[in-house]
Write a structure and sequence with these properties.
The protein has about 190 residues and is of the alpha+beta class. It has a domain of about 100 residues: Ubiquitin-like (UB roll), CATH 3.10.20. Helices cover about 25% and strands about 15% of the residues. It has 4 helices and 7 strands. The longest helix is centred in the N-terminal third of the chain and has 23 residues. Bound molecules: FE2/S2 (inorganic) cluster. FE2/S2 (inorganic) cluster binds next to loops. FE2/S2 (inorganic) cluster (FES) binds next to loops.
Length: about 190
């Protein structure tokens, strides 16, 4: 069959059957097409019956339990370590935490304003904290090169600055007080141009 004959025949199909099929699929036209049996065209141009459409069942809303970012376990009684965050407004938050928790996770699990843009992979400086007491600062293991590189980019760097995601709570740090800087620097591509 030539292409020129094939096209008009296809159009005829659309007018006679295809249109009806389209209408019967339309939710709003269901009553108008109640008597028309839904059909579709198979590859070999024969009509094949289709199962009648059923309206979508009504679906209710569902809710999921909010997943707090980096939720941490509560420390067992008697095993708590204490840390105090001083937020940007100067408010103090004294928290009981477990050994091994890092400061970014602690802050975020208590809804304190610490961004942690890179998710704790030492690739930003938005988890910058300032250890208020030098004695505590000296008890934290030395920063790796990666952390030092990121600290160089931190806004308001001080002598006792660290990245929260790289500092884990230890027994030696029990009672530490850290301050959240008033601003953090969220790097953008334009910062490197
Ligand atoms: S969250 Fe990015 S360096 Fe700590």
């Amino acid at each position: 069959m030539s292409a020129s004959r094939h096209i008009p025949r296809s159009l005829a199909k659309l007018r006679n059957g295809g249109l009806r099929t389209i209408q019967s699929h339309g939710f709003h036209n269901r009553t108008l097409n109640a008597t028309a049996s839904p059909v579709a065209w198979s590859r070999n141009s024969t009509r094949v019956p289709m199962s009648p459409l059923t309206p979508p069942s009504s679906r209710g809303f569902s809710t999921t339990i909010p997943n707090r970012h980096k939720h941490l376990d509560e420390p067992k009684p008697g095993e708590e370590l204490w840390i105090t965050f001083i937020d940007k407004d100067g408010e103090q938050h004294k928290l009981a935490v477990c050994e091994g928790d890092n400061l970014l996770d602690i802050a975020q699990s208590h809804d304190l304003e610490m961004e942690g843009a890179c998710g704790g992979s030492c690739a930003c400086s938005t988890c910058h904290v300032i250890v208020t007491d030098e004695d505590y600062y000296d008890k934290i293991p030395e920063p790796e090169d990666d952390e030092n590189d990121m600290l160089d980019l931190a806004f308001g760097l001080t002598e006792t600055s660290r990245l929260g995601c790289q500092v884990k709570m230890t027994k030696e740090l029990d009672g530490v007080v850290v301050k959240l800087p008033t601003m953090t620097r969220n790097l953008q591509a334009s910062d490197f141009s």
